[in-house]
Amino acid sequence: MPETEDPLPPLRDVIRDYDLRASKVLGQNFILDLNLTRRIARTAGQSGSSPLNKILEIGPGPGGLTRGLLMESADHVTVIEADERFRPALEDISKAYPEKLSVVMGDALKINPNEIFEGGYKIVANLPYNIATPLLIKWLSQSPIRWDSLTLMFQKEVAQRICAQPGDDAYGRLAVLSNWLADTTIEFDISADVFVPPPKVTSTIVTLVPREQPLAEADLSILEKVTAAAFGQRRKMLRASLKQITPEAESILLACNIDPTRRAETLTIEEFCALSRALKEYL
């Protein structure tokens, strides 16, 4: 992929000139290293089935990742930013890359990406930590899924929960939902000292590529409720944790060829899907 020379001033100068300070309330942490943001962009370009064509970025802030995507020759980037303070810096990027950047001011949790794009698109984002998981669940809940890939930054602990497999300590509801619908990969860690201000945790880049078909048949809303009940009391046997759904939990488990004394973290995604189908009439 050809590189584009960035004509803009260093990000530290942008932050100084526009007096842009990270908001703790909005979960903001800025990446100023364009070599790193370009690496994230290249990772996105290598995921899914399409190159860096139509890109959606959430929470661009002063535009470090935005510039990295454009430097890696993304065809077009649309950013959603809730903080009006960043509008001037984003407008400067738009002027430097004519017809390559669209800025949407608003709350990403309230915006449906399918209404922005025709056809497929990639989502690439250094997500604000306080809305990262709700946004992921929102995108996984699309029907049908139209994104070609997600390349997202999470706290390392959350990244491990997304990509965990049955039997792993981190395996839980988020892993079941994510891996039911997508292939998940931990790409690389990012140390706290590359951020301004530095967070107290290590961050991790994760990619998700949607499966052609979910791993097994299930209704998303039912699967969410079953996994919430099962993992909500993860130290209990399933015959106990699922009693909140129905007192017949033990017999239903047996009918699904699942030992009622097993615990949630041992079940495969396919077994959770079978349970969801069996428990549908109770939810």
What is the overall silhouette? elongated
- Order of secondary-structure elements: HEHEHEHEEHEHHEEEHHHH
Count of alpha and pi helical runs: 11
Q: Could you say what the CATH architecture of the largest domain is?
A: 3-Layer(aba) Sandwich
Q: Kindly estimate the percentage of residues that lie in beta strands according to DSSP.
A: 15-25%
* Main β sheet profile: 7 strands, mixed
Residue runs with pLDDT of under 50 for 5 or more positions:
none
Count of separate structural domains: 2
Q: CATH class of the largest domain, please?
A: Alpha Beta
Radius of gyration using CA atoms only: 21 Å
Please state how the strands of the largest beta sheet are arranged side by side. Answer: 4-3-2-5-6-9-7
Number of strands: 9
**How far apart are the first and last residues' alpha carbons, in Å?**
50 Å
CATH topology of the largest domain: Rossmann fold
**Secondary-structure content class:** alpha/beta
Mean pLDDT: 94
Q: Helicity range of the residues?
A: 25-40%
Going by CATH, the homologous superfamily of the largest domain would be: Vaccinia Virus protein VP39
